[in-house]
Specification:
By secondary structure, this protein is of the alpha/beta class. Helices cover about 40% and strands about 15% of the residues. The chain is globular and about 60 Å long. The protein binds magnesium ion (MG).
């Protein structure tokens, strides 16, 4: 079998911002195609160009040689790595696993190791739309739990790096209201998105100690793993990180610190199915669990579920539950979540595909400037 073409297409993402989800479709001379996802928010154009640059190296190649292709794309040039290159490699890697699964007639999770789990527990993100006051968060959290979810995440501390007293109090009141509403047996994660400095993060952790958090996510930025490890050792709340790290080499530096119990690699950004399995195996040697980050589209979600099924140390899968209706429209074989759990759709490869005709309803959007760029506030 040989690769004959690589094509890129996009759809508007229901994220509330001007971002798209981007997919890559790789064709072969045997009529089998594979689908990968390459969403990169505001760097879509750069990512599309990178994918088309890689296209010339892929035409004529045997799509079964996945590790070899991964390494050749990563090592081919002297200056490699970074968001654009690794996201492009991730998308290609995903499409190649889909091709191989279809060609051999088995689901990807079967191909890469078989079932380590019967089904995957979902942690709900995006359940809080429109919530502002602690009472409305409490109401929506109770509704998510009534829908069957046993783990939920929220972002109650928006704003700048230095967290003022009033902001700390407001965020803490939201967490208290949510804990009171859902009871002691639901896992609650708080995501800071790297938007605090060490001083603020220490204060937040101190405030949140009584609420028995599953984890505090990216309390500080990802760039300095020594700093995040130092913080993780100091505070009495479990710290998780990893959604902005790439490849086994960046995760090595984090894992060697022995400071976090959960890592959150992203299958569309950290290197695809191949790389996440390697990262997960490394994590296993440090007794660390993998909770894949997933703020992307339907193929990201499906591919993450295949990974989760196949590795022993997966714990939860992130899903924006408010996007499930759009995932349902975009996928030929939709995801079914029951009792807060999910399996990949049945069938070879991913068990599903992108319904390109259905995407007509979601034409790609252009970037619209917004007044506040949160990452620029310090
Ligand atoms: Mg996050």
């Amino acid at each position: 079998m040989r690769i004959t073409d690589l094509r890129v297409f996009r759809m508007a993402a229901p994220t509330g911002g001007s971002t798209n989800w981007m997919f890559v479709r790789i064709e072969t001379d045997e009529g089998i195609h594979g689908i990968g996802e390459a969403s990169l928010q505001y760097k879509d154009d750069a990512l599309e160009a990178e994918l088309l640059d890689f296209r010339k190296f892929l035409i004529g190649k045997d799509p079964f040689r996945i590790d070899h292709i991964w390494t050749s794309l990563y090592r081919r040039v002297t200056w490699t790595g970074g968001a654009v290159t690794i996201s492009a490699i991730s998308a290609i890697d995903l499409a190649l696993w889909d091709i191989k699964g279809k060609a051999l007639g088995v689901p990807v999770y079967e191909l890469v190791g078989g079932e380590s789990h019967d089904r995957i527990r979902i942690y709900a993100n995006g359940w809080f739309g429109g919530a502002d006051a602690p009472e409305s968060y409490a109401e929506k959290a109770a509704a998510a739990v009534a829908d069957g979810y046993t783990a939920i995440k929220l972002y109650p501390f928006s704003g700048t790096q230095g967290a003022r007293q009033d902001r700390l109090s407001r965020g803490t009141a939201v967490v208290k209201a949510v804990r009171d509403a859902v009871g002691p047996d639901i896992e609650i994660a708080i995501d800071i998105r790297g938007r605090m400095n060490m001083w603020s993060a220490r204060r937040v952790a101190q405030r949140l100690e009584p609420y028995d958090l599953a984890w505090l996510e990216e309390p500080v930025m990802f760039d300095n793993v020594d700093a995040i490890a130092q913080l993780a050792r100091e505070v009495n709340v479990p710290v998780a990180t990893g959604e902005q790290l790439y490849t086994r080499w960046e995760f090595r530096a984090l894992l060697e610190q022995n400071a976090v119990g959960i890592i959150q690699p992203d299958i569309c950004h950290a290197g695809g199915m191949s790389e996440l399995r390697k990262i997960a195996a490394m994590a296993e040697t440090y007794y660390v669990m993998v909770v894949p980050h997933n703020s992307n589209g339907p193929i990201s979600t499906v591919a993450s579920l295949h990974l989760d099924m196949s590795i022993p140390n997966s714990y939860l899968q992130e899903v924006f539950v408010n996007w499930l209706p759009v995932y349902g429209e975009a996928l030929t074989n939709p995801l079914v979540i029951e009792d807060g759990h999910c399996r990949p759709p049945d069938g070879p490869g991913w068990g599903t595909d992108i319904d390109e005709a259905a995407l007509a309803k979601y034409p790609p959007v252009a970037y619209t400037p917004v007044e506040s760029e949160p990452y620029l506030q310090f």
